[in-house]
Amino acid sequence: MNNTYYGKLIFELSRPGRVGYSLPKCECEGYSLGDLGQEALRQTETILPECDELTVVRHYTNMSNNNFGVDTGFYPLGSCTMKYNPKLNEELAALPGFNQHPVTPAKFAQGSLKLYDEVQKTLAEIAGLSRFTLNPYAGAHGELTGLMVIRSYHMSRGDSARTKIIVPDSAHGTNPASAAVCGLQIVEVKSTADGTVDIEDLKPLLGPDIAGMMMTNPNTLGLFETKIPEIAKLVHECGGLMYYDGANLNPMLGVCRPGDMGFDVMHINLHKTFSTPHGGGGPGSGPVGVRKGLEQFLPNPQVVAKDFKDSKDFKDLKVYELHCDDESLGYVSFFLGNFAIIVRAYAYLLSLGKENIPTAGKLSVLNANYIKESLRSHYKLPIDTVCKHEFVFDGLLEEYGGDHHSPDHVTTLDVAKRLLDYGFHAPTIYFPLLFHEALMIEPTETESKETLDDFIAVMKRIAEEAKANPEMVKTAPHDTPVRRMDDVKAVKEPKFTFKAL
Amino acid sequence: MFKYFPHTADDIQQMLDVIGVRSLDDLYAEIPEEIKFKGELNIPSEKSEEEVRSIIQGLAAQNKPLVCFAGAGSYDHYTPSVVPFLGSRSEFSTSYTPYQAEISQGTLQYIFEYQTLMADLTGMDISNASMYDGTTATAEAMMMCVAAAKKRNRVLISETVQPSVLAVCRTYAKFHGVDLVEVPEKDGLMDKVAATTLIEKDDVAGLIVAQPNRYGLIEDFSGLADTCHSHKALLAINTMASALAVLRTPGEWGADIACGDAQSLGIPMGYGGPYIGYLCTKEALVRKMPGRLVGATTDSEGRRTFVLTMQAREQHIRREKATSNICTAQGFMCLYVACYLSLMGPKGMKEVNEQSYASAHYLHDALLKTGKFEEVFGAPFLNEFTLRVKGDASHLREALAEEGYLLGVPTLFKENCLTIASTERRSKQEIDNMVKLIQTIAL
């Protein structure tokens, strides 16, 4: 990233008469769009820009220089697992052989179908579950799909009374939102002072109206819910199913599987745990897995592997088909999800293999605890215990200007903005909602000790600055391409298009 | 040691010392023994770069490329090489949702450009920052109708929308509790009389229609918006995005919501994804619109900048009060669309549509001339049409696939019919070759 701002919009670079494409001459003569009649045609001209090729290339290249990605620098964004996105995966996802129309007969798409099946099988083994669908497009889409599985299961038993879902107060915001979209009522369970689910608060909530419970483990404070076997037992005894939000799966790889913890349904974010790029807000991929006995409820279409007819001569040879199940919850996507993202995840799974996948989780936990222990001298650590892949500070310590009862205290937002000046992305801020000044840090296993040491040094320096010169921190960032935004103006004078400027 | 893990044995030891534990496994000491995974994962062993490449290239080679005459929501359009090139800029692709606006102006600006382009193409006031795909964008439009109407729970959907769109809307409706009523078709077009009768019952939150529809036909929506609005229902039009450049826009039809898939704007068919759904609406409905939204503002030095805004609408703030759960969608594909449209410009988009129109009509006429096909409907079409095969359509389709051609998709509920598409990428030569082949296939 540089610190020069290129602020022109593509519309401001447009000059009438320029083009940036070339098409062959049309040989199918004698047909004209005009034959459709004026009534059917667009009445107004578009405002599409008119640009030559280099203008477009330079415009977007300069814009990319205003952007910060994992390839630019350390991105300790809690809950987002910003690990390195391997370049081999990009190369393989772009192979022309995968660029097929989705209605291509299965016979001519065997390679793609096999790849899909291999990924679903590998994820099932890693998760300790029976089967995955890779059709959901994102984590939230996976949550919604998983909850649909749970509701379909209850409906298939003729049990229509289960309309409520239990969600901890520390849950990701998408959990209650997905439940609401799925037609479920949310019942919140409180956390204890140590940051985990309060079993005594949970017990009275359980009953014949409970469809299930959503949890992420480790939770959003980065703490492992050690009472999970008892929680799962209680929820199962009342007839509910356990849903695992896989946003925090990374530290558990090969150590403790959601299926073994007692979960029945889960989603995985391929763009977190399995290294596919976040793309500035998608495309992600949110595969959903289920335990044995729930497979038929997964969305259509499913990819199934069948033994080849002449299996005497071709041992282990499989034929892949698309299958639609009558008991399925239905369709949630156009076809088989974000297929090119699935190719990337497969390349990652193959590269790491069973030898390295468990190491990824352990090193991410090592990195998180190292930062936590190195910075607790300057930042408030509300829960003092070994964390998993991430942890939460509650702002600066009081002696470093963090006393939030004082009117001119230095906030978590200020610290986050000052970090940008030093070439780091900010951690997740003001989430989870359990603390006033939450600063949620997740380094992943792909970050070196030197990077962490630099980050730690800068975080300490910011704390010292907050003490000595708070104004400088409160007006940060100073060295970024642009400076602090007027967020209020964006809401009060809304402008969402070039035309509105 | 492994190429994606930088830790040396020394690093690990020093870090463990700072933390005050003895081994990596001790970091997991609190986990109950009975749920720990003790064996070895039953998955493949680690592979070198060359091995991974060879395995995945091998799978790609097992797919057989077919000359594509299929559509139904995914179209084989030309993509200028600049588009994937700019899409490989990892400053864009390896970033997260642009929460830190000061170091995310690249992402924010291309989304702002995308919003401008989609609002203009659809003839609406505003666009959000993308949905997953055209099917889920339409399901979100359905839920948006219900959220906007407050006390109405019924949404009408034309039977002529793409089958995939209808299927996904049915799923969302079933679980969200929307009473989704299908408006029957008549001669391949939505039965407007039937739709009007339903709307006049004054209990409808919205009507969803498609242009062009599942058969490729161009529908006439004259008067439809007025009928909807006089009974307090919203009108949503689903359109394949490329066609928006030349067909009467959702805005010009008086629609309140425009939704659909923008794959046709420079995004490869890619076996179904990633694509990008779009959702556009009128300014008055902005607070009911799901998804992220980028707005213009200024920074502390007065420069024009862009930020994520109106976040109070979004699911992570509204939590259990949410009427959509969308957060991360297909943000990166906004870059594809913005680059594509910037290169094509107004002239290019007209030319793409003229050529697609011409090649589809040439193909349509050539197929009829073989004597093996017959017309099913009479209405005009853009680049996709439906014909009945005088014989076994699936046999013909399979035989052609063996020879390297993908002729359309089987038309649902229409015996021996195929819905066939063409684009500017299909040459006259390709069409002539396939038609010649069809003449030799016995039905």
Structural summary, described in words:
- The complex is a heterodimer of chains A (501) and B (443).
- Chain A has 501 residues and is an alpha/beta fold.
- Among the domains of chain A are: 10-64, no CATH class; 353-488, Aspartate Aminotransferase, domain 1, CATH 3.90.1150.10.
- Chain A has helices at residues 53-64, 87-93, 110-127, 139-156, 174-181, 199-202, 228-237, 258-261, 270-273, 339-375, 412-421, 449-468, 470-474, 487-492; strands at residues 131-133, 164-168, 185-189, 210-215, 241-246, 265-268, 288-290, 302-307, 318-323, 391-394, 428-429, 438-441.
- Chain A has a seven-stranded mixed sheet with strand order 1-7-6-5-4-2-3, with helices on both faces. Chain A has a three-stranded antiparallel sheet with strand order 10-12-11, with helices on one face. In chain A, strands 8-9 form a two-stranded antiparallel ribbon.
- In chain A, helix 3 runs parallel beside helix 10 and helix 10 (339-375) packs across helix 12.
- Chain A is globular.
- In chain A, 57% of the residues are buried.
- Chain B is an alpha/beta fold and 443 residues long.
- In chain B, the strands form five sheets. Chain B has a seven-stranded mixed sheet with strand order 2-10-9-8-7-3-4, with helices on both faces. In chain B, strands 13-14-17-16 form a four-stranded antiparallel sheet.
- Chain B is globular.
- At the A-B interface, helix 1, helix 2, helix 3, helix 4 and helix 5 of A face helix 1, helix 2, helix 3, helix 4 and helix 5 of B.
Brief descriptors of the model:
heterodimer, A: 501 residues, alpha/beta, Aspartate Aminotransferase, domain 1, 7-stranded mixed β-sheet, 3-stranded antiparallel β-sheet, 11% strand, globular, B: 443 residues, Aspartate Aminotransferase, domain 2, 13 helices, 17 strands, 37% helix, 16% strand
